[in-house]
Specification:
Blueprint: E1 7-11, H1 16-27, E2 31-36, H2 39-49, E3 52-55, H3 61-74, E4 80-83, H4 109-134, E5 138-143, H5 156-176, E6 181-186, H6 201-207, H7 220-233, E7 237-238, H8 243-253, H9 255-269
This protein binds nicotinamide-adenine-dinucleotide (NAD).
Length: 274
């Protein structure tokens, strides 16, 4: 971790990757603010890392502005903001364009994904940039997904919004890099968290489960470690699964061939391959 980072905010810090980032930052001597929709989980992690808990819905612009303002007032200038909270519900009824789906059938999952996976990053940047630019320094890390570079079979809303998250991080870096704003975007494949149905990642890891996904499932701790090393190196694109770089190159070199390959892979996953 760079010595410049003393105070960090982590959204979605109550569980999974966010919780692992909080713990890793604490280990590196950073003062951590744990922000999560799940207030109870945020409090538990904050207690664990000697930090502060904030209950916040990152899809609500006012709530994010309040979070940034109150941390800057009560804790100090935010050196690092990790927009990690994210949601994915899966396609419903085998349709890429379906409205309802997955865990919250009553909600429009496209809107939910848009609010949490994209607009939350915009809202955070909108609140942070004037402050960070005024002091000519600040680090913004946006957790997207490999689905934002490739595509997630079976979740169109997640794929589209994670692509948008990657594009927004690129715009942030291009527009504000020369004003002293450092930006990273994180694009993992499978990670052992509730998002892929693993309730407590740390305990599950003790049983060992790596390898049953295409390129293996990383633990949240491994991803947090990769993120912190990426920050220290000032890397824009952080790929906890290094294979993703090669897949992106293959996609870029022949998009049509990539689509045909993904169609074949989808048939295999659905058990439709002859
Ligand atoms: N687990 C994976 O396989 C995987 C792979 C690639 C990318 N990611 C991304 O990593 C990030 C973290 O996911 P995770 O795997 O740790 O999932 P998780 O479900 O374990 O944790 C997500 C956290 O975000 C919080 N959250 C959800 N909606 C929120 C909101 N509106 N406001 C504030 N907090 C909210 C949840 O309460 C939870 O604590 C997400 O952006 C996800 O898309 C995960």
């Amino acid at each position: 971790m760079t010595a410049d980072i003393r105070i960090a905010v982590v959204t979605g810090g109550g569980h999974g990757i966010g919780r692992a980032i909080c713990r890793r930052l604490k280990h590196d001597g950073v003062q951590v603010v744990v922000a999560d929709l799940d207030q109870g989980a945020a409090k538990v992690v904050a207690r664990d890392v000697g930090g502060v808990a904030h209950s916040v819905d990152v899809g609500d612009e006012n709530a994010l502005e309040l979070l940034v303002a109150s941390v800057e007032r009560d804790v100090g200038p935010i050196d690092l903001f990790v927009s990690n909270a994210g949601v994915g519900y899966g396609d419903a009824g085998d349709s890429a364009a379906s409205k309802a789906g997955g865990l919250n059938p009553a909600d429009d999952r496209w809107q939910q994904c848009w609010n949490v996976n994209v607009m939350a990053h915009v809202f955070a940047a909108r609140a942070l940039l004037p402050r960070m630019i005024a002091r000519r320094g600040g680090y913004i890390v946006n957790v997207a997904s490999a689905a934002g570079l490739l595509s997630q079979i079976g979740d169109a809303a997640y794929s589209a919004t994670k692509h948008a998250a990657v594009a927004f991080a690129e715009s942030l870096a291009i527009t504000h890099g020369e004003q002293g704003i450092q930006v990273s975007v994180v694009c993992p494949q499978a990670v052992a968290t509730r998002m892929i149905g693993i309730e407590d990642d740390s305990e599950s890891m003790q049983g060992g489960f790596g390898g049953n996904d295409v390129d293996g499932i990383l633990s949240a701790d491994e991803v947090a470690d990769c993120i912190v090393r990426g920050i220290a190196a000032g890397k824009f694109l952080i790929l906890p699964h290094p294979q993703v770089a090669e897949y992106v190159q293959r996609k870029a070199s022949d998009h049509d061939r990539w689509i045909t390959g993904m169609q074949r892979f989808r048939r295999q996953l659905m058990g439709e391959e002859q």
